[in-house]
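Subject: sequence -> structure tokens, single chain

Hey, anyone have a minute? Need the predicted structure for the following. Not urgent.
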Amino acid sequence: MTTDAHKPVIVVSNVVAGAGGWLHSLFVTTDGRLWTMGENYYGQLGNGAFTAFYSPNPTPSNVASNVVAVAVGRFHSLFVTTDGTLWTMGFDGNGQLGNGTTTDVATPVSVASNVVAVAGGWVHSLFVTTDGTLWAMGNNGNGQLGNGTTSDVSTPVSVASNVVAVAAGGFHSLFVTVDGKLWTMGQNAYGQLGNGTTNDTSMPVIAASNVVAVAA
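Reply:
Had a minute. Here:
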């Protein structure tokens, strides 16, 4: 059905992770299967199809197995499998899928290995590998990739080391290093970087210490 709900409704059980995009949703069940539902105009559901804009897909579709982590952007999706492979699908206009192109894809493509954490912004993506390296790709107009530029990239770029947690906002990014420091970069018009200014920055700046978790 496509009727708005004003109270929580049970749609499935045995769920261990979930993520919500602009108009689509993903969740992972205890058996490691990834399920997707909602808008699929850009292929963000990963089921091999591109549907008409605002065409409802109200029934969850199983699109992958052995999944351990999931994240979404506005119209793109990302997930990590048990072998550490990062997979992406959906809108790629700014290179946020990290596969070296700006072409939308409706079937998951593998873009990196040894991945342990992932985050999706409006049109950019971040992930952390087992060695603690933070990688970024996609839109960089406000410096949210943290590589010192404001140019978009379609291939992951390394921006920091010793990273243990990561999060992505609309046009800004945050991460925590092993020493408990919180680093931020990108759009800062509302002070979302927490560095005492409202100036954008394309390089990570320290905003806090003794941090154990982060969200945007």
